[in-house]
Design brief:
alpha/beta; Rossmann fold; seven-stranded mixed β-sheet; 9 helices; 7 strands
Length: 225
């Protein structure tokens, strides 16, 4: 069994181990911080009344997707953990959810007004997978649409963070909670590559609000098509 498969199984088990929807997706934060997170993402996605469709890649149990405002007509989500998709279907009963991988989306070209992918890239196996996933996001987004990739771990902090990790203690944790297993992203490199893509009109690396936990090394990437 690969580490990638192990992580997928751990996420599926997370959805079965607790009824707390925030804990299922490893967001056991208070309501005030949760509401600030939802508001920050909604703002960065430029959600305006009348948008037809949004896709959440790595949607988990769809708790985040269900609380974005203003509301959008059609909600789609995909996640590689089948138990999470089962939860998502309960969370947004009229949404369309399916099991799938970020680097091989089962959607048509230019299908969505907005694409969101929040706090999943550090579970990806490597840089190649990251690039394939972003290419897929661009493929399924309409011209004039927006992609928000959130909670990316800034590669310039990778060594400091991993050096501070207790590897013996990590052995007691699930793989999805082991810092040493996380994939960091060279944000400037990704931005430079995207700026060469003729489908992309603008790219910005966005800071998270200072009061967000660990915001000093977690950034968001906004892509306009």
């Amino acid at each position: 069994m690969t580490i990638f498969t192990t992580k997928k199984n751990e996420w599926s088990q997370n959805a079965l181990d607790t009824d707390d929807l925030k804990k299922q997706v490893c967001r056991p934060i208070n309501n005030k911080n949760w509401n600030e997170l939802v508001a920050d993402i909604s703002c960065k996605l430029d959600l305006t009344p009348g948008l037809n469709s949004i896709l959440d890649v790595g949607c988990g149990n769809a708790l985040l997707l269900s609380q974005l405002t203003p509301k959008i007509e059609n909600y789609y989500g995909t996640d590689y953990a089948d138990s999470m998709i089962s939860q998502a279907k309960h969370q947004i009963s009229n949404g369309q959810f399916s099991v799938g991988e970020a680097a091989e989306l089962n959607f048509t070209d230019k299908q969505f007004d907005r694409v969101l992918s929040y706090s999943i890239f550090h579970y990806f196996p490597d840089e190649s997978y990251i690039n394939k996933a972003i290419d897929e996001f661009i493929r399924v987004t309409k011209p004039g649409g927006i992609i928000l990739i959130g909670d990316l771990l800034d590669k310039q902090f990778e060594q400091t963070i991993k050096d501070a990790s207790d590897l013996e203690y990590e052995k007691q944790l699930p793989y999805i909670m082991r810092y040493s297993e996380w994939t960091f992203c060279d944000l400037n490199k990704v931005k430079a590559q995207l700026e060469k893509n003729n489908k992309v009109t603008k790219v910005e690396i966005l800071k998270q609000p200072k009061n967000f936990q660990l915001s000093h090394y977690r950034k968001d990437l906004k892509i306009w098509l």
